[in-house]
Amino acid sequence: MKLRFAHCLLLAFPLVVAPAVSSADGSDAWITTKAKLTLLTTDDVSASDVNVDTVDGSVTLHGKVESEAEKQKAETAIRGLDGVKEVKNLLQVVPESAEDRVEVADERIEEQVEKLLDADRTLEDVDVASVNDGVVLLSGESESVASELKAVEAAWKVDGVKRVKSEIETRDE
User: Fold this and answer.
1) Of 32, 84, 88, 136, which is the most exposed, with the fewest CB atoms less than 10 Å away?
2) Which residue ranges form the domains of the chain, and what is each CATH number?
3) How far is CA 72 from the centre of its chain?
4) Helices 145-156 and 106-118: crossing angle, nearest 10°?
């Protein structure tokens, strides 16, 4: 029996960076990277505790989300990506309690995200455009989708971040 290794990236932290691949490649690594980025930046999907596995264009989602609506929205978002043949949605619905949420001032969030971005030379052209009620908007340029994902994941690491939006232009697309 031949073993297959899926390209797997954990949306939780620490950061895991996918290999730099272009959309023209259409590989499982590109699909996984794009899927992670899509989940981390989709409104009303709390995907910081979701795994994405891709084998031959078949994407499997597993981990935790806060509601059935998030579970369905995550699946719909992934189905719309180029190269995705099917989506297996194994996400579990586990509501977060209000006491688990951390409230942090937007200025503090912006300061911490900028610090993380500045610490990585590969993200020198990415900036925090704004922070509003815990929602971080990133802008600028990155070399690849994988670099954009790296910036989004960095922002998610900061306490108090509720959502990350990306207006980062990637040079490989």
Assistant:
1) 88
2) 7-96 (3.30.1340.30), 103-170 (3.30.1340.30)
3) 17
4) 140
